[in-house]
Amino acid sequence: MAPVATSARWQRKHTWLAVGVVSLALAAWRAHLVGLGPDPDSDAYGHHVIARKVLDAPGAHGVHWVWLPLFHWLQVPLVALGGTIDLVRYLNVAVWAAVPLVLAGYLMRDETTHPLVAMLAGFFCALCPIGMQMGTTAQPEPLFGLMLVGFAWAYDRRRFGWAAAVLSAAVLLRYEAWAVLLGVGLHQAFRLLRRRKLRDEDGWGFLAPVIAPGLAVLGWALVRWPIDGRFLGFVLDTRRFATEVHASESAFEGGLLTGIRDCLYYVYDVAFRVYGWAILLFPLGLWGVLRRHPGLSLSGLGALGFVTLTWVMRGTLGLDRHFVAVIPFYATAMALGVESLVRLVRSRTDKSLAGAAVVLPAAAASLTVIAWGMVVWMGHWRGAIAGGFRDRLAVADFLRQVPEDAPIVCDEATVEVLSELDRSRFERRSPAGEAGAERILERSREQEIFVASWLGNLEHLRPHGTIVFRPKGAPEDGGLAVMVVPAR
Known about the structure:
Blueprint: H1 2-34, H2 42-56, H3 70-80, H4 85-108, H5 115-126, H6 129-134, H7 141-156, H8 160-170, H9 176-195, H10 208-228, H11 233-246, H12 256-263, H13 265-275, H14 282-292, H15 294-312, H16 327-349, H17 352-387, H18 390-399, E1 408-410, H19 413-419, E2 426-427, H20 433-443, E3 449-454, E4 466-469, E5 480-485
Parallel strand pairs: 1-2, 1-3
Antiparallel strand pairs: 3-5, 4-5
């Protein structure tokens, strides 16, 4: 048995090494991309500005808008220490580099999973283009992906206290975790019914991953209730915002075929876009994930079900980045798909070498397809980083030149963050409409005010102020502008 054990340790060690080298190399690439320019994802600036607001008014829970609060709370210490949005991006570079390693370690904890399968899963995860992309942003998806793998690891090892802690954090980070919580509750209830007794060998501890996250959701809902004026109002506002953008409340309003197609949007369309033809391995290994990795199945299927349902019900904008939460689940199923091919060939040929004859070309072809797709994808993303937000950067540069004692009204988060000015100089309410103009005019009784906003928002201020800056190439009837309203 000693040589077998030694061989297994050798394989696990080299799996860690291989996945680590790939993750580190890709992390270095992402770090290079971060240094090329500003984050092209505008929502990242919204999150960062909310963190700045929380630092100034910790009890103002309404500032989180329809987003959950944890990602903003985590950024508060960074903002307090002078950290910028680029620091968050660099941290995400490291966070996403950890996901393939944690996934490989999680899979190798299962004695039935060969280290080479864990290695392939780590590679499939690390090379996923949308994961690479989000690993250069200041968005919460990389951290959420890490949390889901961490939850799966703790849950499958029956470390229910740790699983509860991770899932409690996750439900305050992304709404997909609410669906995972529902799945965990159903899974635990099924276990109890199957065992035909009130509790299992773990005592009542197995309920912790249900009770603790459930209390976290309830607690946040109660905090927001008086602010929103209705229970779970922030959730309802999320859907209202998305349905207004879509001008539709269901994919089936466009017909049965449209509804069916959108049911498969994340399951297949987005998956094919990020993984190419290698996604054909997914159905071959799906049963293996469901049978051998319940924690990963709950997190993956919960997140996938949530993003699919909310897309069909037009409760989200259908963004590719929502797929990040299910990358570890898909990567594992695809790796097990290669294993299934090996077993199939061996069962039909009865030759020990036949498996290697299949696994090597299948794995190499899959990795080549994914890697090439990732290179092309990141080439486009590199262009978005290097050439993005020219107008916002120009306005931000202009604001750095205004008098230091002049207050700035700015409702565009990207401009505020890119200006790198002290957060106390900004008033973040919109100048649009009569109410916005009146508020600014009232403040201008004391001193002149600079207003940075979209041109259409400045209509009611035109008789009282002067536009002093427009970015180069801005359209005459739109785009950003800076207006100065003199002291009256």
